[in-house]
Amino acid sequence: MYDIGIDVGGTGITAGLVDDACRLTARKTIATDRELTAQGMAETLMRLVRELMAENGVTSSKIRTIGVGVPGTANASTGRIEYANNLPFCQGNLRDLLQAQTSKKIYFENDANAAAWGEYMSLDKKPESFLMVTLGTGVGAGIIQDGKLLRGVNYAAGELGHMTIRYNGVPCNCGRRGCLEAYASAEALIARARKAMDKKRESLLWALCDENQGNMNAKLVFDAYRRGDKTAVKVVTKYAEYLSEGLANVINILQPELLCIGGGISRSGDILLPLLQDRVREKIYSRDSAKNTELTVAKLDNDAGVIGAGKLRLCNENQRL
Ligand SMILES: [Zn+2]
User: Fold this and answer.
1) Distance (Å) of CA 69 to CA 58, 138, 242, 258, 270
2) pLDDT in tens, 16-72
3) How far apart are CA 192 and CA 201, in angstroms?
């Protein structure tokens, strides 16, 4: 038997077959049409599901449930997506529109929560408290305590990216200033690298992006760091400094057993993790405690969102709805 997981992102939508061992056995990705209404989105997602099943010879009797991870607040009471910058027209009851097209139970959840759930489900030994920060276009997070996702009174809990780390700092998409997201997203890292290389024509970053700053991405910044480029070392070190401020804040509040770094940047965890471990240890209030939060890097990479969405059934069995 399989569950189907769907990860709706700002640029792409991936649907996958998730087996009972939490493995993603097949997937299909399409580009996100940001102009879609909720009705259009529901039709697009169900078409994607049908194609995924047909291409893999899977019949309806082999499917248990369908879970969808969406950007913004996935309000499980109303079935609507709230505050999704990437999907401005997707207003309406997306969950009910999906449910109307299938007899399979539909679950829907915030994308960072779904990714955290996926990563948590993949762990052999489940920690009592778990937090995953997803570093991508923005900074998202999912918090799991005693096997349950922390959703808050309005399903908007865990928005770690919008905690300020600098009073009156740089503007953030949410309307505030100085949010962690404005300093620690992949986009913020790229913007900082572009600014730094403008002042250093000799930086290796120029060669790595073929002399075109439009080609810059997070991986190239870490590649240059690995090769000892001074500009990249400065940019990455500053990035780790900002990120550690946010992580220390959240550790001080929640003291989770395990804090996992996910998203595209986690691919450079070999560089980032040691930088963070040192800085976070210096900053946390509990630095003298016998036991402290363990920092790790996500294992599932970009598959966490699809796998987690596919396994929302198990999350919701534990959840008060
Ligand atoms: Zn913000």
Assistant:
1) 22, 15, 28, 22, 28
2) 999 999 999 999 999 999 899 999 999 999 999 999 999 999 999 999 999 999 988
3) 15
Quick one: residue 263, left, alpha or beta (phi over 0 = left, psi -120 to 50 = alpha)? left
This prediction's pTM: 0.93
177 Cα to the center of ligand 1, angstroms: 7
What is the Å distance from ligand 1's center to 62 Cα? Answer: 42
What is the tens place of the pLDDT at every residue in 187-222?
999 999 999 999 999 999 999 999 999 999 999 999
Rounded distance, CA 232 to CA 93, Å? 45
Q: How many CA atoms lie within 13 A of 148 on its CB side?
A: 11
User: Which domains are delineated in the chain?
Assistant: 2-121+303-317 (3.30.420.40), 129-298 (3.30.420.40)
Q: Cα of 242 to ligand 1 centre, how many Å?
A: 14
